[in-house]
Amino acid sequence: MSKITLKNIEKSFNKIKVLNNINFEVPEGKVVSLLGPSGCGKTTTLKIIAGLIKADNGEIFLGDKDITDVPVEKRGAVIVFQDYLLFPHLNIEENIGFGLKMARIPKKEINIQVERMLELVQLKGYNKKYPNELSGGQQQRVALARALAIEPKVLLLDEPFSNLDTKLREDMREFTLEIQRKLNITTILVTHDKEEALMSSDKIAIMLNGEIKQFGTPEELYERPTSIEVADFFGEKNYIGGMVENNMFISDICNLPVEMEDIKKAKAMIKPENIKMYPEGTTGLTGIVASSKYAGERVYYTVLIKGKELKIISQNSKIYKVGESIDIDIEGIKIFKGK
Ligand code: ATP
Fold this sequence. Notes:
Strand order of the largest sheet: 6-7-8-3-9-10
Keywords: ATP-binding, Nucleotide-binding, Transport
CATH topology of the largest domain: Rossmann fold
GO molecular function: ATP binding
Bound molecules: adenosine-5'-triphosphate
Oligomer: single chain
CATH class of the largest domain: Alpha Beta
Pfam families: ABC_tran, TOBE_2
Number of helices: 8
Number of domains: 2
Protein name: ABC transporter ATP-binding protein
Number of strands: 20
Domain ABC transporter: 4-234
CATH superfamily of the largest domain: P-loop containing nucleotide triphosphate hydrolases
């Protein structure tokens, strides 16, 4: 069993708490992303799982085994970092075989494993080349091969693709996940890229300020955030203050049906893509286009409705001009309690 479980992990640096009560589980063979802004504690969490730094409190389990105090080399977890740090003076086969050599595996077995790994990352025949003779993407594949050569139970990826340009990043991500699925290796991916997390993960842990704010499937997090912080992390939203009475959200801007108990002070969250624009006279909820930014597939608008500015992302081919009167329709809201 190579399920990973973190229980109540806490960590401070110089008396400043950077991780608080971290709890989550990665089922065997699954991918969990740690997603959050810079400095929220993602890398620290990963290093604690790898055994590179020690938590102040809490426990880590690999399957049913408590590995909290197990040294790095015996944990069965490897990290691949963003700056993949191949050894420049070692050729590709020596780089890939490095961990095996350290573990005193016989040369013959190392050679067999290196060949398997070169085939896995599609670099057969590159044995004698040096890292500086390879492209960024190829070097990243060597780094992955080096990590996988020791047959770890857990793969820890720390923003491994962020040094690569957009197209290569997507290819490498797909490539890595294919290998992950093939080997059924339990994986944690650290990223600050929400799209990367949404596309790559079975589950996502949203980290903000050293805490996990929500843990769930990509769809759960995106569609049903449990807090405004999590909702905002996935992109700018509109918020309208009001109240809920008799299954109706009531505000100065509009009234919308909802199915929930009465709330005196409520905040409706509306995603910019859930507001649709129509010619004036269509819905009766009329506003004026205050700004528009054309971005090819989409147009980003702000629209003034009864003095309130609403952000709208439109994929409609009809383009509205600044100053034009338009009608809107709101196609989905989420209510949070409080002002
Ligand atoms: P990034 O995406 O920028 O890598 P992160 O979410 O991975 O950020 P961490 O690297 O885990 O964040 O850092 C979390 C906090 O802990 C930061 O405030 C950082 O400055 C602090 N920190 C990390 N390592 C140390 C250390 N060795 N000594 C002191 N403070 C540290």
